[in-house]
Design goal:
alpha/beta; Rossmann fold; eight-stranded mixed beta sheet; two-stranded antiparallel sheet; 14 strands; 35% helix; 12% strand; globular; binds nicotinamide-adenine-dinucleotide
């Protein structure tokens, strides 16, 4: 949870790709009239510039019997008369020009601009109709294939390739270790992993000390698939001992969720950094950064050891580290800079470094972050109740939040489980997954401060 009235965003690297604004700005101001061409023969007088802009080379088709491959000229864009040509309103033409071969014809029967559709050559390879190109504001884009052509492609895919649509998370019997598993979000994460059939070690400073020496299995409905172990992530020696204890029961840790933290809501806050106690700064960094470093190291070392043993290596699956960051790591927190600095450190610097490192240890080892926005925990609700007069709920979860609501705990936990599952996210690596209801920053000033 974040502090009331933190910082507003300063150039968060999200949203519209660089330069996309310019492309829109370059559109011709005058509307382009459209002529329907029955056949792309010659050079039309109306659009000399247009043709020069079309840079798509002629497409060589496969040989048709004897002789040289036939060269097909590029068709001209044919927007409807009087229609302004914009990316939002691409031209639509239904011109079809049959060529010699029955399987080859110019078809331009749907709006251009869907870059995700198969390209011309892919379409051709799949027996689809040949497509042309269109010019928008001086830039050339390939036209999407006709819907018929696209249908051909997908039919071929579904008939030739087996798609069993197995939606199983594949987490059954994966050893998942969650630090901070006794906390509000942590216990939700633990519960979801158990539901997915994983073997779960929940490590937390909140558990009794004796759980590091005496097995503490939860036998209620989990068939001894959950163990709770006392651990202090900021005490390296003790933490190693707790980790070793956890692996004795369930084997090497495949998947690790680094969640243990001093959350913002349990930390002292000051109106300015001027008044921050340096001891607080140090404590937060020790637990939130130092603890996450040790967690990551123990996970990766375990994977390295397992990879060295053919028997253990064969059983490695869902090798994933998920670091729990925060929106604070993006936007900062004016009243508790240590928390924000620690979250930035782990969700950016540490995670990005491990992204390069982990696959060298084990090819399928993945590392990602989850950065929640304000989470709808009982603690958050209580804070909002206490600070109702200052409009805390509005400031934190509405004013700059697109979905206008805090994030349910379950949403955070499900994102973690998704990133843990090789079957679901096996190629998601080195990412920060913002689970923040679309938060875009913080208010800098309250209304009354500006009067
Ligand atoms: N709640 C939110 O709105 C929110 C928003 C963004 C990010 N987060 C992050 O999500 C995570 C969970 O938050 P939460 O709201 O469940 O907080 P929480 O305080 O309920 O959970 C944190 C857990 O970490 C444990 N912990 C603290 N220090 C430890 C240590 N030295 N060793 C081992 N365990 C330790 C605590 O005992 C607690 O169980 C935290 O990393 C938090 O910063 C929370």
């Amino acid at each position: 949870m974040s502090s009331l009235m933190g910082n507003v965003p300063t150039g968060r690297p999200r949203g519209r790709p660089k330069g996309s604004k310019n492309r829109v700005a370059k559109q011709p101001k005058t509307s382009t009239t459209i002529t329907r061409t029955a056949r792309p023969v010659g050079r039309p007088r109306k659009f000399p510039k247009l043709l020069e802009d079309i840079s798509t080379p002629p497409v060589s088709l496969p040989k048709r019997g004897r002789g040289r491959p036939r060269k097909i000229p590029v068709a001209q864009a044919a927007p409807a008369a009087g229609t302004p040509v914009t990316p939002a309103n691409p031209p639509e033409s239904t011109t079809t020009t049959p060529l010699d071969s029955p399987s080859l014809q110019f078809v331009n029967s749907q709006p251009a601009g869907d870059a995700n559709r198969p390209t011309q050559l892919q379409g051709l390879a799949a027996g689809a109709s040949l497509q042309s190109s269109a010019t928008f504001g001086g830039s050339v884009r390939p036209l999407a294939p006709s819907q018929d052509a696209y249908a051909n492609v997908s039919h071929q895919t579904t008939s030739n390739v087996q798609h069993p649509h197995d939606l199983d998370l594949g987490l059954s019997n994966t050893h998942v270790l969650v630090t901070g598993g006794a906390g509000l979000i942590g216990s939700y994460v633990v519960s979801l992993f158990l539901t997915a059939g994983a073997l779960v070690s929940s490590l937390d400073i909140a558990y009794p000390l004796e759980t590091t020496t005496t097995p503490n299995f939860d036998t209620e409905g989990h068939e001894r698939r959950l163990q709770r172990v006392h651990a202090d992530v900021s005490d390296v020696a003790q933490f190693r001992q707790a980790w070793a204890f956890a692996t004795r029961s369930f084997g090497v840790v495949h998947c690790c969720v680094a969640l243990a933290s001093l959350d913002l809501s349990v930390l002292p806050q000051t109106d300015s950094l001027c008044d921050m106690d340096p001891a607080t700064w140090q404590r937060v960094l020790n637990v939130n950064v130092g603890g996450t470093f040790t967690t990551s190291q123990l996970w990766l070392r375990g994977i390295r050891e397992a990879a060295a043993s053919p028997q253990q290596a064969a059983a490695l699956k869902n090798t994933s580290l998920i670091i729990i960051g925060s929106e604070a790591g993006h936007f900062g927190v004016r009243t508790q800079a240590a928390y924000a600095a620690a979250k930035s450190a782990v969700q950016y610097g540490l995670m990005q470094s491990l992204m390069a490192d982990a696959p060298r240890i084990w090819a399928k080892a993945r590392v990602n972050s989850v950065a929640p926005g304000p989470v709808d925990t009982p603690r958050y609700r209580e804070e909002c109740r206490v600070a109702e007069a200052q409009g805390m709920h509005w400031v934190e979860s509405q004013a700059t939040v697109a979905l206008r609501q805090p994030v349910p705990m379950e949403a955070v936990a499900k994102s973690v489980v998704f990133l843990a599952s090789e079957a679901w996210s096996g190629h998601v690596h080195g990412q920060i997954l913002n689970v923040d209801s679309g938060k875009q920053g913080k208010l800098m000033w309250a209304r009354e401060e500006c009067d």
